[in-house]
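Q: What does the predicted 3D structure of CBS domain-containing protein look like?
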Amino acid sequence: MKKREPVSEIMTKSVITLNFKDDLETAERIFKTKKIRHIPVVSGDEIKGMLSYTDLLRISFADAVDEDDDSVDSIVYNMFTIEQVMAKNLVSVPSTTTIKEVAEILAKKEFHALPIVDEDKLVGIVTTTDLINYLLKQY
């Protein structure tokens, strides 16, 4: 196993992002069509927050109500903005951070994605799934 490999080796470099002008229905559509769980919220190249699919589930009554899921989601999503729902106090690391260091951060924190930022610019994202896939390749 490579001990000092940088996270840039396993991070997703073509990051799908949202901005404050996008709505939560757009976010949900991206989550479902792209089959992803985390979307950085940016202003230009600067990351401002992170929206997770779990964040949307927390505000949605769709699972608790026996109605048409789409209509319930639309009503709830119109009550909130991305800025209100996203995580704002982010931990980020530069692309030179080792995979081991990233694994230690994700193991200790209660989130499953870490933005990769170089010189205040979002350059990638790494998730717990990326780490698991990396470990699986080692065997």
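A (community wiki): The structure tokens above were generated from the sequence. The first helix runs from residue 24 to 34. The beta strands are 38-43, 46-52, 113-118, 121-127.
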